[in-house]
Amino acid sequence: MELRALAEQVLFEADVSAKLHTPEALTDERPGTPIDTPRWPARTAGLRLDDPRPAARFPRVAELDHPDARARVLHSFANHELLAMELMALVLLRFPSAPRPFRLGLAGVLADEQEHLRLYLGRLRSLGSGLGEHRVSPFFWSCLAHCTDPMSFVVGMSLGFEQANLDHSLFWLDAHRTVGDHDTAAVLQQVYDDEVRHVRHGLHWFRRWRGPEEDDWDGFVARTAGPISPARARGPTYSVAAREACGLEPRFIRELAVWSNSRGRPPVLHTYNPGCEEEVAGRRLSGPVQDLRSDLAILPFVLAGADDVVLVPERPSAEHLASLQRAGFQLPEFATTPPADRPAAAHQPFGQAPGLPGWSEHAATWYRRSTGLAHFQERWTALDPDLVGPVDWLGEVVRSMDDVEHLLRTHGRVVAKAELSSSGRGLRWLAGVGPADRRWLEARLSDDGALVVQPWLERVCELSATFRADRPGRLARSVVDARGRYRGSVVGWALQGLPGEVHRLLHGGRAALAAFEALRAELPFHGLDGLVHRRGGRLWLHPGLELNPRMTMGHYTHALAARVKRGTPARLEIVTGVRDLAAHAEAIRSRCPLELERSQLVGGALILNDPVTARRFLGVLRVGRAVEDLLPSAHEAC
């Protein structure tokens, strides 16, 4: 039988039994001329790909003890085999000039798909069901029917859907064995064995056709777009052994294991841009801030969904991403530029800044500390004075050196804050005004026109709140050094490990959260910095230390807490001042191996950013040690 005749039969005969005819011998002497892609392959009424019936819900593994659930699974698998046959027939008819060994090899794969369909139909009959009882999906056809050449078909079918079926067949094989359906398990074993050969066939031709300067992984990624992303080449579990049996390169196997990419939903673009205040001020970012931005660029992965994209200067290594996956994180895509083939649904930076979508001059006003101070002063009267003290403790906006010196005489010690700075930067602790202090103050007054000066407070602990427009506020607790610079956060309940007198003052946190809520602003994401301080022999809450019109590390901390077992002490730590961060990370991993219990972290340490490329900063999530050890006294008074 001529190969073209077989392909026409599979594609244009409506009856499944005709599509299943397998000749004893095939020749390819008359390949003919290319055909146009039909709208749909020919099928009988119950199997049409434009069937208007609603789709049947795909069963869960827990339902497989019911025969009707197993029949629905087999019905879906049978349609996949039928689609694969039709698509292979289409490729043979659309590309008659493709190399004859490729065409004959593809005909052999098509024959295997015919046999798989026969086996699935037999299992459906044994379960009292048949093909066509449910609506079938056209997804494979929609993705591959208009491929531009045999290479694009090999990428989508052999390295895409068939590679994924390595995982699917093994996963469902085990699931059917578990419920005692060994006959279906035997079918899936044969499908798996054949699928290994199918992927090998596609891989052989992919390597023949790809550029000599590319390796398998780079060539594969470069030729996937839209719905056929690398993520489509994985199933519900990931079998390294299956891919090794197919002959895939080790790098391909490692990279695919951690690849994340949208399966169709427009992604949200996430960017970590600390120093956005300096960008608003038009100042060049300092070296440490640039390093912070680069080293911790990966951090938004804790907030992003699987369909989202985190923009990074350099994609983290597969080894590092695998360590995050082992810790239970579902990873988004990491990209150095926004994806050209998928318009973004939104852009979510750490903080809005000039040049980013959504930036406005109105947003710029919130970055000025004087705006936050005026906002707090307006709302302070709504707070309990026995909890927060007088409004004078908020400080004042000053516009001259005389004003600064007046407040120094009034309070004895003060903190001067530049209008535009953050995270402990742009601060000056003053008990007097020396020559260096005067130069700093005058420079800030000259650049920004104003300073915020607040009375110095005897800090007991940092306490803040994080806000999102779509949900209530949440308490957070930072760890800072002696100069007020951020060094980490408590993960989980913000008041863990604090003295009883703090709990009593804040009524277990309820009074603190209510105070922060009374001061919140109408911003999509923001945080309020505060603290518990000691004055006049007693404790006070100061909920209006600073308004951050952007995300804070507290937003990331709350997301990390979702991976930690409830009640387990944990801390986010930003490590700096270490000469060899890679060696330091390896030492941490060696001393504190991760411990998981039912997919939740219960002990050990997780390195959050890639230590191999980090220059100055390392994010570490420490879990399960005593709270006192997690909060060094050098960083926090209590």
Question: Short description, anyone?
Answer:
The protein has 638 residues and is α+β, with helices and mostly antiparallel strands. It has 23 helices and 18 strands.
Provide the descriptors you would attach to this structure in a database record:
Ferritin, 3 domains, 6-stranded antiparallel β-sheet, 23 helices, 638 residues, disordered C terminus, single chain, alpha+beta, 4-stranded parallel β-sheet, D-amino Acid Aminotransferase, Chain A, domain 1
In the sheet with the most strands, the strands line up as 11-12-15-18-17-16
Question: What percentage of amino acids are in beta strands?
Answer: 15-25%
Radius of gyration: 31 Å
Number of helices: 23
- Counted up, domains total 3
Description:
With 638 residues, the chain is of the alpha+beta class. 42% of the residues lie in helices and 16% in strands. The chain has three domains: 69-258, Ferritin, core subunit, four-helix bundle (Ferritin), CATH 1.20.1260.10; 268-365, no CATH class; 457-638, D-amino Acid Aminotransferase, Chain A, domain 1 (2-Layer Sandwich). The strands form four sheets. The protein has a six-stranded antiparallel beta sheet with strand order 11-12-15-18-17-16, with helices on both faces. A hairpin with a 2-residue loop joins strand 9 and strand 10 (471-476). The termini are far apart.
What's the arrangement of secondary structure elements?
Blueprint (H helix, E strand, L loop, with lengths): L2 H10 L3 H4 L47 H28 L5 H27 L12 H6 L5 H29 L3 H28 L6 H7 L17 H7 L3 H9 L9 E4 L4 H6 L5 H9 L13 E3 L6 H9 L6 E3 L10 E4 L11 H6 L2 H11 L5 H4 L7 E3 L2 H11 L2 E5 L8 E4 L4 H14 L2 E5 L2 E11 L2 E6 L1 E3 L5 E6 L8 H7 L3 H10 L5 E11 L2 E11 L4 H9 L8 E6 L5 H11 L3 E3 L2 E8 L10 E6 L3 H4 L8
Parallel strand pairs: 1-2, 1-4, 2-3
Antiparallel strand pairs: 5-8, 6-7, 6-8, 9-10, 9-13, 11-12, 12-15, 13-14, 15-18, 16-17, 17-18
Helix pairs in contact: 1-3, 3-4, 4-7, 6-7, 7-9, 10-13
